[in-house]
Specification:
alpha+beta, five-stranded mixed beta barrel, 2 domains, single chain, OB fold (Dihydrolipoamide Acetyltransferase, E2P), 3 helices
Length: about 140
Amino acid sequence: MYGRKVKLRFLFILLIILILILTTFLILKSLEENVVFFQSPSEIKALTEIKKKKIRVGGMVKKDSISVVSKEVKFIITDFKNEINVVYSGVIPNLFEEGKGVVAEGYLKDKNYFLATKILAKHDENYMPPEVKAAMEEK
């Protein structure tokens, strides 16, 4: 019915399509594992169960909440409705200070305690996370 060249061409095209599908699947699977969700302190308080996944918590650093003991920094992130205590060991960005916006990446220990592995402050001093901005406009 079909010649040998047509069958080989069909198998070659089928093999290319399968490789593309497999590559796309593997890329999406690896991205799925690296997705980090952003949450505000109010959203964390509303959680029913605490998962051991990496998340980002954003808000404002509460006034008079920063305490530095050796290489460990403790502070409170607030969205002006709820607060969460954060502990971080590492280098602090230059823009990190009280009353400014911050995003901390790490793991929840419970609804009131967050262990940060990274502090993200790659913004200017006027930056404010959208959730915090909306909360401030409500007040």
